[in-house]
Each structure stands twice: as C-alpha cells, then as structure tokens.
Amino acid sequence: MAEMFISNKYLRRGEDQDVEWGYCFDVHLNAFFPMLILLHVILPLIFSGLVDYPYFISRLIGNAVWFFACVYYVYITFLGYTAL
Fold it and tell me: Would 15 be classed as within a structural domain?
C-alpha cells in the first residue's frame, strides 16, 4: 500500500495519471518471489552444509545470500517502477 502512495506522489508523469494498487502489488510480488526462493529454498539447502558452523566464511556466505536477496528485491522493484 505504501508503494502505491509513494508512486502516486513522486513517480507520476502528469496529474491525470494514477498508479493502480494492483500494479504496485504485482511489482512487489515479482520482486518478492526471487527473494523468497533464495531465502526459503536455497538457504535451507546450503544451511547444514555451509552455514551452520561458527566460522567466518560460514557467516559470510549466509549474510551474502541475505544481502543478495535484498539487493535483488530492490533492483527488481526499481525495474518495475522504471517501466512507468
């Protein structure tokens, strides 16, 4: 819902245009799905083999997956709103 208000306030080209909530929700879902796959499918698969150890490299891999997922979400959201 906040995405709709922000895009209606800052991303519109003219006063007569309006961004639909459905478009904002679609952009969110398109960006959230790869993040969901990375964090809830890929990370649990590598958790027991790589991440579940008290070593620096294990924590680096786990945090890198989270970082990549968050950056990818922001990037896909950016692409979705750039298409306006």
Answer: no
Domain range for residue 28? 2-8+20-82
Q: How many domains does the chain contain in total?
A: 1
pTM: 0.75
From first to last of its 84 residues, what are the pLDDT tens digits of the chain?
677 777 777 776 666 667 777 888 999 999 999 999 999 998 888 888 887 788 888 889 889 999 999 999 999 999 998 887
Integer CA distances (angstroms), 58 to 38, 67, 68, 84, in order: 16, 14, 15, 40
